[in-house]
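Students often ask why inverse folding is considered easier than folding. One informal answer: many sequences map to the same fold, so there is more than one right answer. In these notes we will look at a single instance of the problem. The structure comes first.
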């Protein structure tokens, strides 16, 4: 299990990225704390439910299997 956070700073391509604790880009300000999940897929799903109007994606560095764009 790892703690995941959604970075509320929008990326240049319009995405909002989910990061796992320990990632170089794990947000320390302007984020939504998603909680603990066993996989980035579950964290991304939770982020989409909390922020349905945002385009959510996994971070390419810490959540590569969830990174789609
Ligand atoms: Zn990351």
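Output (designed amino acids):
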């Amino acid at each position: 299990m790892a703690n995941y956070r959604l970075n509320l700073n929008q990326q240049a391509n319009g995405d909002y990225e989910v990061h796992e604790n320990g990632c170089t880009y794990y947000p320390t300000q302007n984020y939504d704390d998603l909680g603990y999940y066993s996989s980035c897929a579950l964290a991304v799903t939770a982020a989409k439910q909390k922020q349905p109007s945002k385009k959510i994606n996994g971070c390419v560095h810490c959540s590569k299997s969830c990174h789609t764009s």
